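Re: zinc ion structure - here you go.
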Amino acid sequence: MANHEELFEAIPKPESGSVLYLPQEIILPPEELMPLLKKPFLEMARMVAGQEARSYRGFNVGAVVLSSFGNGAAYGFAFGANRKPGPNAGRVCAEQLGIAWSLNPGLDQPKPDRILAFYVWGEPQPDRVSGKLAPTLHPCGDCRTMFELLPEITDDTMIFTAGPDGQTEEFSVRELIDFHKNDIAS
Ligand SMILES: [Zn+2]
């Protein structure tokens, strides 16, 4: 008969988390690092969208989230894809899953002190809150609210975006939020 206590002890403890760390050789100040990662991380986001997104209407989005650990002693990244398996299913955004993997990397794993940047790939569509159609897909209203509330995300957290037509944009969280603020006067 199986000894359950022994079996439970054999369950592995989380030893590696959901965050991948950049090699120490490429530790640079964030202002230098973020644009250097634009090309490889947007390409990674495109691949994540293609391989991991679950959208009933083929609206595939991928995101790579860059974070800082120990006041810049290390940088890590995690990625996410969107999930909406049917029209009535709740939406999980690529950015939100990337945030989850970043901030909840596993038991006993180091937690980031800052989220520095998002790299997002998707097809542009009109924003549900502001109605604006930008050249690239911007994080949605729910994501923007999350950005404003999470202490790891600040006004100067950067967002780099790209889509299938090759256009790219980059802006800060503050610029994103201001861009989509509803114009009350109109
Ligand atoms: Zn969103």
